[in-house]
Amino acid sequence: MNPKFQTLFQPITLRSGVQLDNRVVLAPMTNFSSDAQGNVTDDELAYYARRSNGVGLVLTACTNVTRNGQGFPGEFAGYDDRFVPSLTRLARTVQGEGAKVMLQIFHAGRMAPAALVDGDVVSASAVAPVRDGAEQAPAPAPRELSGEEVEEIVRAFGETTRRAIESGYDGVEIHGANGYLIQQFFSPHSNRRTDRWGGSLEARMAFPLAVVDEVQRVVAEYARTPFAVGYRFSPEEPETPGITLDDSLTLVDALADKGLDYLHVSLMEYASLPRRASDTAQSRLEQIVAKVAGRTPVMGVGSVHTPEQATQVLDMGAEFVALGRELLMDPDWVAKVREGREAELETVLDVEGQDRLVIATPLWNALVNTPGWLPLSKKPEAVTA
Ligand SMILES: Cc1cc2nc3c(=O)[nH]c(=O)nc-3n(C[C@H](O)[C@H](O)[C@H](O)COP(=O)(O)O)c2cc1C
Fold first, then answer.
1. Residue minimizing CA distance to atom 19 of ligand 1
2. Phi (first) and psi of residue 246, to 5 degrees
3. What are the residue boundaries of the NADH:flavin oxidoreductase/NADH oxidase N-terminal domain, all occurrences included (predicted)?
C-alpha cells in the first residue's frame, strides 16, 4: 500500500462498541431489485456480497418503516415482523464477507410515488415537492399527518430498529437526508405546522430528535451486543424557504450531544461550499466538523473517486468516507488501494460488465439510462441492457 493512504485503513471502534476494520464505507444505494412483497432477492444478496469484501462498513439501501413510507419500486421492506427473515439474509450475507452492516431506515413522506402507497402520500404539511426538471409533471400535494400519526411513525422507526436487532445487524442508520420524511419535518419548505412538530427552528427539530430518542430507547431495551446508531442528513436545500447550513448547524449541535455513533453528511460533492450561510468560504463538511468539535465521529461522502480524495475527506476532519458510485463501477476499489494497485481502479462503468460487476437488471438499467449518473465506457445509445 502507498503509505499516504494508510489513514484509510486504520481500524476504529465506534461508541457502541462496534469495531470497523477500516474507514471506507459502502454508501447506501437503492437497487430496485427486491420482490413484489418487499423481500430481499438472491440478486440483491449477490450484489451486496460482491461489495462487502474490503469496506469496513456496509450501509444498506433504505428500507421503509411503514407501508406508506415506500419510496421506490423494488425496495425491501422493514415495516413488519414478517420481513425479519428477508432482513436477516441480507445481514448474514454482508457479515459473511467480513464487513459490518447497518440497515438504513426511512420514510419517503411526500417523495413516495402515489402508485406505490395506494395514493396515501403523507408529509409534515400539505405542500408539494419542488420538481427540478421542466419535463417532470408537477407533484400532487401530500396529506398532512395528524399529531397521532406523527407519533405512530416515530414508534415505527423504533419497531424497525427492533427488527434490525433481531435480524443480526450491527446497527441502523436513520435516513434524515435527501428530502425524505425526516428532512421534510426539518425543512421550512415542507413543514408549515403550528403544533409541537413545526413553527420555530426548534420545533422543526422535534421530529428528527424524537426519532433518534425512540431508536436509542429501543436499542437500550433490546440490543444484547454492540449496536450502532448513525444519522444521515443533507445540510442544505435549494428552495426558499428551505434548510440553510446555519439551520443544519443548529441541528448538528443537538445531534452531537445524543451519543450517536456517527453523523453522515449527505453531499454530492464532499468539498462543496454552502449556497447560503453565515460563512460561505469554508466547505460544508468542515463547518459541520467544527460544530461537532469531536463530540461524535463524522462521515463524509460525495464524488470521492480517488484514494487521494478519500484521504482528503479524513484530512478535513471526518472519521469515515463513504463511496457510492465508485463501488458500483469497481467493487474491488478498497482491495486495489490496499494492495497498492490504485492505477488499476475502474473509473467508468463498463457497459458490457453487468455480470462481472454483479448488478441486478433494474439498477443496471437505471445506471446506464440516467444521463449524468455515472461515466459510461460507451455512449448510452450503444447500450442494449
Ligand atoms: C443508485 C443510487 C441509489 C441511492 N440510494 C440511496 C439510498 O437508498 N439512501 C441514501 O441515503 N442515499 C442513496 N443514494 C445516495 C448515495 O448514498 C450517495 O450519497 C451519493 O451517490 C453520492 O456519493 P457518490 O458520489 O460516492 O456516489 C443513492 C445513490 C445512487 C447512485
1. 266
2. -60, -40
3. 8-343
Place of cell 456517527: 262
Give me the mean pLDDT over the 246-265 stretch: 98
What residue type is 201 in one-letter code? L
Write the DSSP assignment of 116-135 as a string of letters: GGTT--EESSS-PPPPSSTT
Hunting for cell 455512449 — which residue is that?
379
Q: Would you state the cell numbers that stand for residue 187, as one nine-digit string? A: 425543512
Query: How distant, in Å, are the alpha carbons of 65, 79, 144 from that of 162?
Result: 11, 11, 27
Instruction: List Cα–Cα distances, 55 to 92, 114, 297, in angstroms.
Output: 16, 36, 17
Domains and CATH numbers, the chain: 3-347 (3.20.20.70), 348-385 (no CATH)
| Centroid of ligand 1 to alpha carbon of 252 (angstroms) | 21
Q: Of residues 169, 180, 231, 262, which has the active-site annotation?
A: 180
**What atom in ligand 1 is closest to the CA of residue 326?**
26
Q: Cell numbers for 5, please give them.
A: 493512504
Nearest CA residue ID for atom 23, ligand 1: 302
pLDDT at 231: 99
> Is 180 annotated in the active site?
yes
Give the separation between CA 350 and CA 153, rounded to whole angstroms: 41
**Can you tell me whether residue 150 is helix, strand or coil?**
helix
Q: Where are the beta strands (DSSP E) in 311-383?
A: 320-323
Dihedral sign for Cα atoms in the order 79, 80, 81, 87: negative
Q: How many CA atoms lie within 13 A of 235 on its CB side?
A: 32
The Cα–Cα gap between 237 and 251 comes to 14
